[in-house]
Design a protein that fits this description.
With about 750 residues, the chain is an alpha/beta fold. The chain is built from 26 helices and 14 strands. Among the domains are: about 100 residues, no CATH class; about 240 residues. A hairpin with a 2-residue loop joins strand 6 and strand 7. Bound molecules: adenosine-5'-triphosphate and magnesium ion (MG).
Length: about 750
C-alpha cells in the first residue's frame, strides 16, 4: 500500500480562496486514483485559519508563540505513526438488538394478515461489528436501506443507551466517556433543521457565538465564520436566507453544507454524519464530501453513512464498511474492493462502479436462501488473512488526555481550554456562561421573528378581530340583571379566548423544538438558558397583544373601574397570555405533532372553560370534580376580572323594581311591581321600594361562588401557573431530548 510510511507535512499558508482546490480551478477538482492515492496538498486546518486571525489560544492564554500545526498523513502500520499519536477511534464487536413483538400469521386470512402476539423476540440490528476510523480519513458506512447504517453511526456517536449496546468503543485505546465524546464530537443529522429567515452567514455566526468561547473576540468569531464559509464553498450564498416552504432560500446542497458548518464551527475531533449527501445531486454531493475530506485532513475523524456513492465520491473515501442486515460484509479500503470480490469469486467487471456492483451483489445474495452468510464468513477470513495483526492495537505514545490537549493547543475544539490535568475539565462542557447563551438565543430568535412579521401579525390580527367582535357584540352593556348576565358571558368568553389564541404558536414552538434538540444534544448551550431566553423574549409580544385586546374591549363593553380598572383588566389578560403561552410551550414539549398539539390544546382548554365556574358555580360543582375546578386555568382570570368589575361596594346592580326581571313577573306593569314590593315589605317587615338596592356587586360575586381568592391573588396565581409550565417545559426538554436509542 502506498499509504505505508507517514510523511509529516507542515502547512503555514495564509487563508485565501486559492487554498481551497475544490472551489477554484477545475484542474484541481480532478479525481484522485483510489488505489494508489497520494493525499492532496494539505489544506489549511481550522486551527490555522484561526491562527491567521490571531490564534485563539493566544487570546485565552496570552501565549503569543505561534504553534506549528502539522497535519499527518496516515499510514496503516503502527511503526509508521509519528510520535504525536493521531486519533484512532476503534470499535470492537459492537452488537445491538431490540426487542420486538413477533407477528402471528393468520392461516385463513391470506398473505399479510398478521397479528401482534405477546411473544417478544430480539432483533439484531448490529452483529459483531468491528473496525477503526482514523484522523485524517473519511470512513464510510455503506449498505442497502435497512442494513443498519444509521444504527452503526448512532452506536459510534454514543446515541444508543449503554445497557443496550454490547462491545467496546475506544479513542486512542481509552474508553470514551459519553460526556467527553459530546464535547469533542459533532453529529450532523440527516434533516436540515435551521432557522428559515436567517442568512447563511448569520446562521453560522450564531453557531459561532454558541460554540466558541467568550474569550474569543467578536472579530475572531467573524473571521472564523468567513473562513468556514469559504471552506464550505458558500461564499456566493453567504447573504441569502436559508428559506422554507414559504420563502425562497438557498439550494438543498447549500443548506446541507450550512448544517454541517454549524456543527463543525468549533472544529470537533470526531465528526459523525448520517447520509450527508442524501437528496443532493451528484455535484452537490461531491462538494459536500470534498468538504468532509478537507475537515478530516485538518485533523479530524470523519465517519459518515452513504447510500450509493458515485465514482467521484468513492475516490474521496478512505475506509468502507459494507453492512447487510447488521453484519459486516466488507471492511477495508475502496482500493481493495476488486481483490476482495475477485477472491470471493465475483470479480468486478472493468468500468463498473465498484460500490454499485458490491451493493447489487449483496442484494442478490440477500435474496438467496443462504443470505449473505457466505460473504460474511469470507470477509472474516479475508480480514484475518489480510490483517493478521488485527486485534493487536498500536499502543499510543500519548494518552487520550494528552492527545486531546495537544489537539487543543493546535487550535482544535476552538474552546479556549487550558491544559488542565483533569481531562474532562480540560474541555469545558459549554463554551459560554449561561447569560451569554441566553443573549445569543434571544438575539437569534428575535432576528428570525423580525424577518417573519406575518407570524406575529396573524396573532395580533386574531386578537384584534376577536376584540372587535366582542366589543360590537357586547357594546355598552348596562347594569340591569340582563346586562349582568351578558357581562358574565363576556368575561368567560374573553378569558378563554386569550388562551385559545396562544395555541397558534404551536407550530412555531415545534419547529424550534427540533433545532433545540439538535443543538443541545452536542452541548451548544444549556437547556435552562433556552427556556429562560424563550420565556423572556415572548413577553414584549404578549404585552402588545394584551394592550390591544384590553383597549378594544374595555371601554366599548363599558366595563367598570375607570383607569385603575382598565389597568387591572390589562394585567389579567397579560397574565393569561403568559400562562397560556407557557402551557402551549409545555405541551409542545411533550406532543411532537402539530395536529395532535392543536387537538390536545383545544380539548384541554374546553375543559378548563367548563370547570371555570362560569357554567356551574364552584359550590355546585360535584365534589369529585372540584380538583379540576382548581386546576382550570380559566378559573383564575375569570374570577379576577369579575371581582374587578363587581367589587365596588357603592354600586347597585338590582334595584327593587328590577327583582322581577328574568321571571314570569317581569312582564307586569311597573305600578303592579311597586304594589307587589309594598306587600312583600309588609310580609317581610322591611321597607323595599322600587329603588331599594337588593343586589350589590358583592352579591353577584357570592352568587357566582367567587368568595375564596382575592383579585390580586388570582392574578399572582395565573402568573405562577405560567412559571410552573415553564419549569415543566424545562423538565420535558431534559427528559425528552436525550436523543438516545434504548
Ligand atoms: N427500534 C427498532 N425496532 C425494530 N427494528 C428497528 C428499530 N430501529 C431500527 N430498526 C430496524 O433496523 C434496521 C436498520 O435500520 P437503520 O435505520 O440503521 O437502516 P439504514 O441502513 O440506516 O437504512 P436507510 O438507508 O434507509 O437509512 C432496519 O431494518 C430497521 O427497520
Ligand atoms: Mg439511515
Amino acid at each position: 500500500m502506498s499509504f505505508l510510511g507517514s510523511a509529516i507535512k507542515s502547512s503555514g499558508k495564509p487563508v485565501t480562496g486559492d487554498n481551497f482546490p475544490l472551489f477554484n480551478s477545475s484542474k484541481q477538482m480532478e479525481l484522485q486514483k483510489y488505489t494508489k492515492r497520494a493525499k492532496p496538498t494539505v489544506s489549511p486546518t481550522l486551527a490555522e485559519l484561526l491562527m491567521h486571525v490571531d490564534d485563539a489560544q493566544n487570546d485565552a492564554s496570552g501565549n503569543n508563540t505561534p504553534v506549528d500545526h502539522r497535519v499527518l498523513e496516515l499510514g496503516y502500520a503502527c511503526s509508521s505513526l509519528p510520535s504525536s499519536q493521531p486519533f484512532v477511534l476503534s470499535f470492537n464487536n459492537l452488537t445491538y438488538s431490540v426487542k420486538v413483538r413477533k407477528k402471528l400469521a393468520l392461516p385463513f386470512c391470506g398473505e399479510g394478515s398478521k397479528l401482534d402476539s405477546n411473544e417478544i423476540h430480539s432483533k439484531i440490528l448490529l452483529n459483531d461489528i468491528s473496525g477503526e476510523a482514523r484522523e485524517g480519513e473519511i470512513m464510510a458506512v455503506l449498505g442497502a436501506s435497512g442494513s443498519g447504517k444509521s444504527t452503526l453511526i448512532d452506536a459510534l456517536a454514543n446515541r444508543i443507551a449503554k445497557e443496550s449496546l454490547k462491545g467496546s468503543l475506544t479513542l486512542n485505546g481509552e474508553v470514551l466517556e459519553s460526556r467527553l465524546l459530546r464535547v469533542i464530537s459533532a453529529y450532523v443529522m440527516q434533516d436540515d433543521l435551521l432557522f428559515p429567515m436567517l442568512t447563511v452567514e448569520e446562521t453560522l455566526m450564531f453557531s459561532a457565538e454558541f460554540r466558541l468561547p467568550r474569550s474569543l473576540s467578536k472579530k475572531k468569531k467573524k473571521a472564523r465564520v468567513q473562513a468556514l464559509i469559504d471552506q464550505l464553498g458558500l461564499r456566493s450564498a453567504a447573504k441569502t436566507v436559508i428559506g422554507d416552504e414559504g420563502h425562497r432560500g438557498v439550494s438543498g446542497g447549500e443548506r446541507r453544507r450550512v448544517s454541517i458548518g454549524i456543527d463543525i464551527i468549533h472544529d470537533p475531533i470526531v465528526l459523525f454524519l448520517d447520509e450527508p449527501t442524501s437528496g443532493l445531486d451528484s455535484t452537490s454531493a461531491f462538494m459536500v464530501v470534498k468538504v468532509l475530506q478537507r475537515i478530516a485532513q485538518s485533523g479530524s475523524i470523519v465517519i459518515m453513512s452513504v447510500h450509493q456513492p458515485s465514482y467521484r465520491i468513492l475516490s474521496l473515501l478512505d475506509r468502507l464498511i459494507f453492512l447487510s442486515h447488521g453484519h459486516t460484509v466488507y471492511s477495508g479500503s475502496p482500493g481493495n474492493l476488486p481483490h476482495f470480490f475477485a477472491e470471493f469469486g465475483h470479480p468486478i467487471p472493468e468500468n463498473e462502479n465498484r460500490t454499485e456492483f458490491a451493493l447489487d451483489l449483496i442484494r442478490e445474495l440477500e435474496e438467496t436462501p443462504g443470505g449473505t452468510k457466505s460473504l460474511v464468513e469470507f470477509n472474516t477470513s479475508w480480514q484475518a488473512r489480510k490483517n493478521p495483526r488485527s486485534g493487536f492495537s498500536c499502543k499510543p505514545n500519548l494518552s487520550l488526555k494528552d492527545a486531546i490537549s495537544a489537539s487543543i493547543s493546535r487550535g482544535k475544539l476552538v474552546s479556549g481550554a487550558t491544559n488542565d490535568s483533569n481531562l474532562t475539565s480540560s474541555v469545558p462542557t459549554f463554551a459560554n456562561p449561561f447569560w451569554i447563551e441566553m443573549i445569543v438565543i434571544a438575539k437569534r430568535s428575535m432576528t428570525n421573528s423580525k424577518r417573519m412579521p406575518e407570524l406575529f401579525g396573524i396573532r395580533l390580527g386574531a386578537v384584534l378581530v376577536t376584540g372587535i367582535i366582542l366589543a360590537t357584540m357586547f357594546w355598552k352593556l348596562d347594569n340591569s340583571p340582563k346586562g349582568i348576565q351578558e357581562r358574565l358571558g363576556f368575561f368567560a368568553f374573553a378569558m378563554s379566548t386569550t388562551f385559545y389564541t396562544c395555541a397558534e404558536a404551536i407550530p412555531v414552538f415545534l419547529q424550534e423544538r427540533y433545532i433545540f434538540m439538535r443543538e443541545t444534544a452536542y452541548n451548544a448551550y444549556r437547556r435552562s438558558s433556552y427556556v429562560l431566553a424563550h420565556s423572556l423574549i415572548s413577553i414584549p409580544a404578549l404585552v402588545v397583544l394584551s394592550i390591544s385586546f384590553a383597549a378594544t374591549t374595555f371601554w366599548a363593553v363599558g366595563l367598570a373601574g375607570g383607569l385603575s380598572g382598565f389597568f387591572f383588566f390589562f394585567l389579567t389578560i397579560f397574565a393569561s397570555f403568559w400562562a397560556g403561552s407557557s402551557f402551549v410551550t409545555f405541551l409542545s414539549g411533550i406532543v411532537a405533532h402539530v395536529m395532535l398539539g392543536f387537538t390536545v390544546v383545544v380539548a384541554i382548554l374546553a375543559y378548563f372553560l367548563l370547570f371555570s365556574g362560569f357554567f356551574i358555580s364552584r359550590d355546585r360543582i360535584p365534589l369529585y370534580w372540584i380538583w379540576f375546578h382548581y386546576i382550570s386555568l380559566v378559573k383564575y382570570p375569570y374570577e379576577a376580572v369579575l371581582q374587578n368589575e363587581f367589587d365596588d361596594p357603592t354600586k347597585c346592580f338590582v334595584r327593587g323594581v328590577q327583582m322581577f326581571d328574568n321571571t314570569p313577573l317581569g312582564a307586569v306593569p311597573v305600578s303592579l311591581k311597586l304594589k307587589l314590593l309594598q306587600s312583600m315589605s309588609s310580609v317581610l317587615g322591611v321597607n323595599i321600594t322600587g329603588s331599594t338596592c337588593v343586589t350589590t356587586g358583592r352579591g353577584i360575586l357570592v352568587q357566582q361562588g367567587i368568595t375564596d381568592i382575592s383579585k390580586w391573588n388570582c392574578l399572582w396565581i395565573i402568573i405562577a401557573w405560567g412559571f410552573l409550565f415553564r419549569i415543566l417545559f424545562y423538565f420535558t426538554l431534559l427528559l425528552g431530548s436525550k436523543n438516545k436509542r434504548r
